Amino acid sequence: MTFYIAHRLFAAHDRALAADLGDRLAEKVGPDRVFLPFCDTDEEDLVAEVKGRRLFELDRERLGRLDAMIAILHGPSLDDGVCMEIGYAAACGVPVLVLTTDFQTYSMTEAGTHLEFPDPLLQAVATRIVRMAKLGPPSPRPTPGHSRFQVFQARNVAQTNTALDTAVDALFELPTRAPLRADSAAAIGTPVYVETSPYTPWGQDHLAKACMDAGHTVAVPQRFTSSDPVAGALTDLTVVRAAARLLADVSGPETPPGTALLIGTALASGVRIAAYQPRPTYTHAHGREPNWRNLMIQYASEAHLESGEAVLSWLTA
Prior knowledge:
It is a single chain. Helix content is 40%, strand content 12%. It has helices at 12-29, 51-63, 80-91, 120-125, 148-171, 185-188, 204-213, 229-242, 257-268, 295-300, 308-315, and strands at residues 3-6, 34-35, 68-72, 96-100, 128-131, 192-195, 218-219, 245-249, 272-276, 303-305. Helix 10 (295-300) links the parallel strand 9 (272-276) and strand 10 (303-305).
């Protein structure tokens, strides 16, 4: 079996946590069966003509031949690259285990169903979620001379160790799963699915109207208004996989997690993808070309649109 560890790359502690997980998993299956991005793509030292695209190609190649994925997601701000990879794997029928140590749960309304993640799409596609929400127990006999900060650190380390070990064991209990359902495009009407960002003040009406004015059938998200958010998320996944196009507003500090997941799902399903971002910002990493979003989002998208006119042009292309 081949295992892919999806994790946030952009801070040393995140990479170290993923490496710890990789080491524990490798002890059980062998190092050649574990793929750890950044480490195994040699990202810091890799030289390529277009480095970001090459990294995207290397990761996508691995995503296409997996037996299982383990994804690390912590807190309310979920890494868009990881979410994209989850969507891609799930669309290919790869079982996905999600590991979190977040002590919060989330709901669409004040009294709504509690979910492990802010977007119900994560709940809908995860084969299993391992959630370790509490610190490790305090030591019954604090070592003399240890500060309260060392004691607190030890409880966090204990929580992390338990989470990693539990996740590794759970990987071997994952059921195999079929690819996500995709009804025929003819049955759904080959729509343009419009996925909006909460950071765009005018909401989905602006983009949806542009698509309808161009003569397209339009589908919009159901999961945020459904009485059953997970069922609504599954509907969104089904429609996206059968759509002709996905128009995704990727505005915000990073691509919203559900939007990123749908981009991965659409890419694996052969759906045309455009990213709408009227106010782009760029990231700059050593040896890489400037990226206007996470490179997994950027290179999954066939077009980067910054205006309504650009949307109309893409719709007629």
